[in-house]
């Protein structure tokens, strides 16, 4: 048995404390998801057949259509903006690099709040239409319907394109100028060079951004529910609200299969799209003149920024001022803010602590067991928060009742959802630390856990803290898990935005939405450095 154990770790096993913490973390991450799948498989054939006949086909169509359309248009906008900002003489191109990334810190449900205020049935444009006879003559009925597929499509496209914009920008900045010059010497013009030279190099970046967008659309609940569009996440939440937990688990399993299918397609596609720059003579890409297209392109970039950043922020500031004058920014508001910070802060600290043993074992003790622990730790990241919450309700209401109906359970749900963010940031820093430092400490008799605490953590602390900041902001914005797991009377800013918007109390929802945006700007600097 001992020989088998040593063979698993190639003769270099980790300490028992390190391995135990990593294993317990992997179990914590995966048990809720496994439990949901188990409950769904035991739902009975009648329940499955009824849902397959009545609900699932329509939900598949709605979810698939929305995911495809948002991914297609967000990729198109993101790649276009990345090209104009990084490869052309666009006016103020340096400023646009971070201005166009700002939608990343605005949760789509916050964007939905802003556009409901502007275009909704009781919104600013509706009031304008009612007050102007000539507009009523042109449009006999109010023409804007934010509560529709096109409304959801517009919101999600606006606030997800930065995933592609950032990754494509990084790829464009690293592209070697030599290849373009060779193509130009063969008589190709700029458009032909883009399609035959630049685009193949951009395909991996486009694929990475597209998969992030698709997974986000599959998992989004806030914007979709606010705009009354029915996808799997909304249907699962409302099934839980009507106490039909069995149907909720069946729908959850279908959504899990759909998510895994998207990941499988992406993995298969990525294997066939590997492009390398083999020349050793790197030259920075050339900045191309736009000529007569300079101001039309500038107008296009400005329009995207206006709709994705400026308009929502102005609307929220306007209603926040009204809310401040009305006295909504009171002790209750700051209690909601404190609840959000408390739960997100706890999730951030737990994620940093639990990520360390996993990334350390992956780097220093590679084996099949390490790979399994790492994969299980990613279980909750690719799945919607509503599914994670359902799994936790099942498990903790039966076996860990002392945690059920406490805010600690919300923090654990955030850890399951966002632990990989802390792992990725820490792993990037750990890759820069030589294993020889560990070996030197081990040769002096220090066990692995002490080496990690005394040597590794001080060396990679900036990366750990950056990962913790990402988890903090992601937790601050998480809505469905908080709605399902919060104890009675425990509200956060995300919950108040949801409740107040559904009741059209915009002057109460706007200050919380604006505060979330302001706090979310904190990790933007890290993201821009990374990409």
TrEMBL record:
Q: Mind listing the GO biological process terms from this record? A: transmembrane transport
Membrane association type: Multi-pass membrane protein
Sorted UniProt keywords: Cell inner membrane, Cell membrane, Membrane, Transmembrane, Transmembrane helix, Transport
Q: Which residue numbers delimit the ABC transmembrane type-1 domain?
A: 60-266, 337-527
**Positions of transmembrane segments:** 17-38, 66-86, 98-118, 147-168, 205-227, 247-265, 297-321, 341-360, 376-396, 402-419, 451-473, 505-528
Where is this protein found? Cell inner membrane; Cell membrane
**Which protein is depicted?**
Iron(III) transport system permease protein
Q: What is the lineage of its organism?
A: Bacteria, Bacillati, Bacillota, Bacilli, Bacillales
The UniProt entry's sequence similarity note says: Belongs to the binding-protein-dependent transport system permease family.
The yes or no answer to whether the keyword Magnesium is present is no
Q: Which PANTHER family match?
A: FE(3+)-TRANSPORT SYSTEM PERMEASE PROTEIN FBPB 2 (PTHR43357:SF3), INNER MEMBRANE ABC TRANSPORTER PERMEASE PROTEIN YDCV (PTHR43357)
Spell out the GO cellular component terms annotated for this protein, sorted alphabetically and separated by semicolons.
plasma membrane
